[in-house]
Amino acid sequence: MPRNKISDIVEGRILQLLRWEYSQSLIVNILKRDGIHVSQPTVSNVKQKIGRQRNSESKIKIFRKKPSQTPSIIKKVIEKIDVKEPPTQRAIAKDLHISQSTVSNIIKNSGFTLRKKQKVQKLTSSNVMKRGQRSFKLYRRLARGRYKNFITTDETWFYLDETSGRRKVCYIKKTDPDYDRMIIQQNTSRPKGFMVWGGVSSQGKTTLRFVTPGTKVNSNYYINNVLKPFLTKDVPRLFRKGKKLKWIFHQDSAPSHTAKETIKFLEQNKIHYITPQEWMPASLDAAPMDYSIWGHLKQQLNKTRIDSIEELKKKILYEWRKMSQTYIDKVLASWPRRVLKIYQARGSHIEHRL
What we know:
Strands 1, 2, 3, 4 and 5 form a five-stranded mixed β-sheet that branches. Helices cover 46% and strands 8% of the residues. It has three domains: 8-49; 71-110; 125-345, Nucleotidyltransferase, domain 5 (2-Layer Sandwich). It is built from 14 helices and five strands. The protein is an alpha+beta fold and 354 residues long. The chain is elongated, with a radius of gyration of 34 Å. It comes from Rotaria sordida. GO terms for molecular function: nucleic acid binding. This is Transposase.
């Protein structure tokens, strides 16, 4: 509708709706419901020019929101997130009087990404120094596919109360008074469980060996109940003489592993192994059994409820047999890369770099 055909009544209605901060498209729809047909450009024309054309003393002022992503706001957001214990995006938005989406966009556009914190082993300054010094030599022994000659072994504990079949997350309405589902109650008594020894290689898995509850795993027990069966049964099966592969034994720095009697036994049997002086201390992040194999096995166990120790043993053996060599090969292939990252990090934590 041409501008000069607008009546004073229609013009007044438009001005009133503009003062109430209705959008131009909404004004068109409101007037249309009242039987008044005007176009959006007409409303815009009234908004921008009515004051000058009518010599009005009170022109319609157009207020635009101040851009929220100003250099000052961006700097404040970065200062809040670039700390050890950053607040939530919602808290940042509330504090700076901007939207949460603006905070999220600033973080994304500034090159930051949200990562879940991971539990890591505490490293002393001595640990860090030794890891930095020993990592590159170990990397060279593993690189170029040489990790395929290793049998890596370890022990871990399995507990009955860790196999409840319950997920560690839940969804609950704010109005729901039943908060019992939000907690996982732990048994305050000593948990029922046992220690298990096992190992993997590019040629397959060792037999799992269960430690009788209450048994003290010293060097004597380790030699007679673990190493001797391992050398007489597992090694010949995994690395047959016809393959001509010089296998290397890997274990961590547990007391029973580094005891003089254990080292003497390995030397007498001419076993090629990673010595305690070569292995990096406090390095679960560089031991395949720790950083992946045991965790995968426990994750599978937690999918179903297990009610007895005997049932737990059977389930462990079942899941161990079911674990594919393809998965093991993938875990072992990441071993050299992890050790190299420890060297590049000068012995510090690497979980956040993976």
